[in-house]
Amino acid sequence: QVRLVESGGGSVQAGGSLRLSCEVAGYQISTWCMGWFRQAPGKEREGVAVIDAYSDTYADSVKGRFTISRDTANYRMFLQMVSLKPEDTAMYYCAADSSRCRSYSLSGRDMEYWGKGALVTVSS
Fold it and tell me: Quick one: average pLDDT of 35-49?
């Protein structure tokens, strides 16, 4: 059973930075599509960024502020977030699919595995 565990969430003021980490227990992720998704209270889940061995893709709302990366040797994925805004407040979820990313991966509908989430709160 694939297990994804997020860490690094917290509270920060607008303009601040946070780094989220996702650990994939015991699986080689080098060929996988992995991503970060978020859901704010009362809103639908949205894709933030996805990455595979070939490319990465970002939601327009985070381009230039968030950076997704992976450390495949240590089974980890990261999301570096800078210039945070109150509208970035949400539960952030790590997700993975055992195939490469597709054109629709940012929708999340092809993700097989999900973490339980890490809360990010940005105050104005």
Answer: 97
